[in-house]
Structures are given as C-alpha cells and as structure tokens.
Amino acid sequence: MNTIATAPPLIAQPLRAPADRLVGGVRAAWRRSVLLRALVIAPALFAAAAVLLVLADLLMPLRAGPREALRWLPVLLGGGFAAWSLVRVARPPAPRAFALLAEERIPALGNRLLTVFDAAERVGDGPVGRAFVAEAERSLAAADLRGAAPVRVRTPAIVLAAALAVAALFRIAFPAAAAEAVNRWLHPANAYESRWREVRAETLPNVTAPVIPPFDELRWRIEPPAYAGLAAQDGRGDDAITALPGSRIRLRSRFPDAWDAVRAAGIGGGALGVRRAGGEWIVEWTMAPDAKGVSLEAMAGGQVAARRIVALIPLPDQPPDVQLTLPAEDLVLATGTGRLPIRATAADDYGVGDFSLHWTRTRGSGESFEFIEGQWAFARVARNGKTAVGELTVDLGALQLQPGDVMHLRAVARDRNTVTGPGESVSRTRIVRVARPEEADLINTDIGMPPELPKDPVMSQRMIIVMTERLRDRAPRLPKPELMKQSNDIALLQGRLREVVGEQIFIRSTGAMQEEGTDFSYLEEQGQPHGHEGEGEAGHAEEEGGEAEKMTPEELLEAASEATGTGRQEEIAHTHDEGPVIDVNRTLVLLYNLMWSSQRMLNVGQPDSALPYQYDALRMIQELNKHERIYPRGNVSVDPINVPEARGTGKMDEVDPAGRGAGPAVPSVLPLLASLDRAAAGLGRKPPREASLEISNLAARALADPAADREAAALISRASGEAAAGRADRARDLLRRARARLAPSASSASRPLPSTADPAAADYFRRLGRTP
To answer: By the 8 A CB rule, do 151 and 180 touch?
Structure first.
C-alpha cells in the first residue's frame, strides 16, 4: 500500500497583530526622538557657528565680500539639519529596520520579534509550534518600549547653552562691539572699516585706536530713471560715480560725535539737503545731465573740520541704431505694381520706443514737381530685450505709382529717454524708382514684372537675366509644356538682342552708315557710341575693308564665329591670329556667341543653363561701357586759361579784413598743475587737516574747469582723504597719478616731485616758483 506524506498544516498568523503593534510603537518613539533632537541640535549649530564667525572677524577682520557669503553659514547648518530631520520623519525606514532596532534596544525579546516578523507563516501546528506561539505572545505583550529610541540631546544642549552664554557675556561686556558685529553681519555693505577698527581697539588688548579719517568709506546708491528698466545699484569707495542723467543718487557715511553738521553742494550748483539718520548722514539728489561733482563739508565748532569732493560722471544715453535690411539695395521697378516687403531693425542701450517707417514720394520735375511724405506703422514689431524688428509689406498698386516716380524709404526709431531725450535715429535711405519706358535696361528686381512690352521689343540683357531668373525659380512648379513656352518667349527676346549686336558687327566691319535720326537708346547699356560715330571710323574701315566689303552679313558672322570660337568662357581671354576685320570686332563677336549659347539653352527649356552665358554677356557689356567713346555733335572750341596771368584778376571790392576783437583766453591746466605740485611738496610738513582741505579745494577746481577730467578729480579727492589720515606717501602717489591724467605730455618730461625727506629742497622750489 502506497502512502503519501503530507506537510503539517500551517497555523494562522496569531503573532502578526502583536508584532505589528510592537513595531508601530518603536516607530512612534523613533519619530519623537528625531524631532526632539532636531529642536536642540539645529539651534546649537546656528548659535555656535554665529559665535565663531563673530570671534574670527574680531580677531582677523574680514572684507565685505567674504562676510556676505559666510553670514549664511549658520543658517545653512541649522536649517539644513532641521530639514534633514523632517525628511527622515516623513519618510521613515522599512518596518523590518524597526524590528531590528527593537531587538537591539530591548534584550527581553530574545530575537522573538525578528523571528515572528520574518517566518511567522512557516510555524507548524505541532506541539513545538504552539509552545513557541504562546511564549512569543507573552514576550511581545510584556515588552517595554521606553528604551527603544532614546533622545540623547545632552551634548547639543551644552553646546547651545555655551554659545548663548558667550553671546550674552559679549553683549554685556562690550555693547558697542556687539552692536557693530551684528550690524556688520546683517548688512555687510553698511559696515565701516574705521568703525570696526575702533571696536577692535575697545575690545581686544594691545590694539591701538586708529586715526578716524573724515567721510570714511562713502556709500552710495544709484536708482536709474524708470525708462532704463535697470535695478538700483549699490557701491562704496571714493572713485567717481557714473550714472545716467535723471538717476536718484543717495550718498551716506558715518557721522562722528565730534561733528556738528554736514553740508553738501553741487560743483557749480546750489546746496543739497543733508539729513541725519542714527549714526549716519545722508544726502540725496537727482543727477543733472551736466553734473560734475558734489562737495561735502563737515562742520565742527563753527569751522570746516573736513572736506570731500565726489566726482560725478554722467553716462550718455546713445540714440538707437537703426538698419533697413530689406530691401537690401536701391530698386528700379518695371512697373508700379506688386508687393514690396520691408524689414528694419533697431537696437538701443535701454530699449526701443517708437518704431516706424518714413516715406517720401517725388514725381515730375520743374513746375510740375510733386513732393509728398508720410509715415507708416510696421504691421509686425517683434521686440526682444533691447532690440526690435519691424516688418511691413507695401502694396505698390495702392500707391498709384507712375513711371519716373521715386519713393524714399527710411526707418525711424526713438528711445524711451524721458530725461534728456528721446533720442532719434534714422536708417540709411533706400530708393525705389519706377523705370520709364526708355530705362528698361536699369531694372534690377522682379517686383512689378512683367511690364507691358511693345510689339517685337528689344529687351536689355539685364532685363532678360531678371526674367530668366524668375523662370528658373518657378521651373519646378511649372508643367513641362508651360516651361517650354515661357522659356521660348525669353529665347525670342534674347535672339532679338543678338540680332542688334550682329547688325553692329556688320556696320563696324564694313563701314556702313546708319540712317540719320535712328533711335539707338536701347543700346545705351551695350556701351555703343551713337550719333555720327560711323563717320569717325569710315576711313579706317575703307583702308581695311578689302575682302570684307564684298561679304554678306551672314558670311561675315560665320567667319567671325569660326575665328573666335563658340562663346565659351575659356575662349574669351584666348587670342588668335586673324585678319584686321576680325580683330576689330572680337569683343562684339564674343558677345554675339554668348547670346547665341543663351538662346540655344532657352530653346530647349533649360533656363538654369542659359544664365551663365547671360552673366558673361552682361559683364562684357559693362566692360564696353567703361571704354565707350563719346563724339561731340558739333565743333567745340574752348580757349585754354593761362593760370599765371589770370591769377589775382578777380573782384577786389569790399574785401578789406574786418577788425578783430580779443577772444576768451584758452584755458590752461598749468596753474592747477603748479598747485598740485605745491600741495604734494607740503605733504608731511603741514598738519593733516590743513593738507586735506588744501587738496580738496584742488579737486573742486579740477571739476569746475570747462574741460574737467572727472577721473583726475576723483584721484585728487582720494588723496585728500589719505592726507587727512596722515598717509602722506599714498596721497603723494595719488597726486602724481592725477597730474599724469591732466597733462600726459608734461608728466613724462617733468622732473620728479620733491621728496618730503628733504624739506629744504621743497622750499627752494616753492620760492623759485618752479614746478617739478
């Protein structure tokens, strides 16, 4: 008897519920622990980093740039740890990780939770299985979760308390230093270097208090006019301030306790209002287009304690740059119909305002001359930042243009300057002219084509090229029969022009005469002299005629073709040994053959193959135009002028020179250079305040000059501040640089300034009145 062994039946999951409850309790305890640690560690990191940065700046002062970047370090540390903790709480680990944590932190479980968590479904329904289930249920129910997720914030709490204690002690012991430190880190651009040096001297031992320079570390803020669309700009230092006219400028600096007031006035202008805000003075005004600078004076005890000159450089707003890109050249139209596309671009430093197209139409001449002008708005204007592109398509038929009418087109753009403008610019003018009937050879566009042609017309080579190019562009869309028809029509026009060239070859070779009054206006482009030109060559042709006079036109052309080739480009520059008749007509015969090749390609419906021959023919016609000979139609007699005898024989009445008055003297920079030299020589021998006031006066003089050099004035103003601080060498170097800008040619050949190490030499130069 066969028996089949079967596995013992699996029990249900009696342990899953208590295991899940235990894992859920561990997860909740872990979340509370993470949040509590974040609430203590994040402030501890912030406070510790802030205290360390302040102490480091006190020991080794940082510049505004590094301070601007490092001030965010405490926020990044504290905020970063808090954000990381929140992410952990929102996305906790898997349940099995909490089971492992419970087994690690609760020894009473004895790995029962992990066993139940991993293999509860494989526990059999036997005596051992039932005993394990019963024992595991009791262990899980009696588990104590208090130690599963401890908080452990003792060390972070100590760090936080220590940082707060240090900050409180520093605030109580050194209130001025604490306030200045907070201000330096909250507003790095509003920290005065001299003030921080004072704070360090009050706080740290063995640090001497520095000399407080007047108007130390000037701060300025520029708010450009609204039309510029620029953001406000902050700056610092003693360099010249560059701004657009109409900008709102705010200048400020520290107000020492020893001062009574601060006065401000524009160079060549009126006084400016000064207000005091806390420990600062502030002056604010609107910059004029002709502004040169601002004079600042500190008053103490009814006297001028310090003076500073701030140079201003108005930034010019250039007018827009306008280009008319389409049409790209002047146009000569066949007729006054068709559609003319127009495109223009404009660019400006601060954006383009109004943008339009101005047109002028002229018609007739003399008493019948008409002049009409107007303005068109672009149909589409695409603006991209500081540039604008305008497009317009003009229906020429609506303008009712007549042959000979001329249209002048130009784009006009204005900027948005509401202070000194607006600035206006115009593009290059394009001329669009409708050709008269006798000017068909000047047509250079397919707009208005085709014109109304007379019966059996003689078209110019340029016009034939335009028609062939149009047919080449439309050939892929035309049926074969229509292409052949239009190509044959152009071939007939080419053949008619070729016949005219053949007639000229025969006339020149045989000395034949044209009938009087023959119209040769259509040959102007070919460069053929007309009128009585035949008379000038008849005698020469008779001398060379010989056999040529006995040849018919067809025989002569056949002989010329055999001698000159088939009109290929490589044959144009080749020379044969031929008779004098063929040599006289070589250029015209080559032109004749090129037109024949063009006609042959057009007859087989290949306009693209005909164009190279047409281009060569046009170039040859233009070359003939350069060498065209002009014969007068009558006797001309002009007596030459004897220049030596004619000189001085003109009208001499009322040509006596008028009296001249004394004009204004040419401005000279030499007095200012001499004053700069004297001020440089006195540095180190005069009190700092006296030297500073003297040099600041020179800066004001440099700005008041009609041809003021603002950069040189800024250098002199900086030298005034250095002199007030007792740094004579740096002030002297700035004066040398200013002198080099004011007189570049004189500075290279001048002697060096007297050194303050030899006061006798400096006084000697001063008494002599000489400048180094």
So the answer is: no
- The single residue listed with the structure tokens 């480009």 is 569
Distances in whole angstroms, Cα of residue 106 to Cα of each of 22, 114, 150 = 11, 12, 12
Beta bridge partners of 651: none
- Provide the whole-model pTM: 0.51
Cα–Cα distances in Å, from 642 out to 568, 639, 651, 739? Answer: 54, 9, 18, 58
* SS3 assignment, position 494: helix
The DSSP symbol for 441 reads G
**Tens digits of residue pLDDT in 233-273:** 888 777 788 899 999 999 888 888 788 888 999 887 788 89
Nearest to 31 by CA among 198, 160, 190, 149: 149
Continuous segment of H or E residues that includes residue 169: helix 154-173
Is 538's pLDDT higher than 90? no
pLDDT at 354 over 80: yes
289 and 245 Cβ atoms separated by less than 8 Å: yes
* 258-315 pLDDT tens trace: 888 889 998 877 888 999 887 788 999 999 888 888 988 888 888 888 888 888 888 8
- Nearest alpha carbon to residue 324 among 347, 340, 342, 341: 342
Decide the pairing of beta strands 331-333 and 430-434: parallel
The predicted-structure confidence for 10-48, as pLDDT tens digits, reads as follows: 444 555 566 667 777 777 878 888 888 888 888 989 988
Q: Listing from the earlier edge strand, what are the strands of the sheet with 339-347? A: 321-326, 339-347, 387-395, 380-384
Q: What DSSP letter does each residue of 333-378 carry, written as one string?
A: ESSS-SEEEEEEEEE-TT-EEEEEEEEEEEE--GGG-EEEEEEEE-
Residue 8, token pair as written in the block: 């013992």
Alpha carbon distance 719, 715 (integer Å): 6
Of 15 and 475, the structure prediction assigns the larger pLDDT to: 475
Given 3-state DSSP classes, what are the helix, strand and coil percentages for the chain, each rounded to the nearest 5?
A: 50, 15, 35
First to last CA, the chain: 134
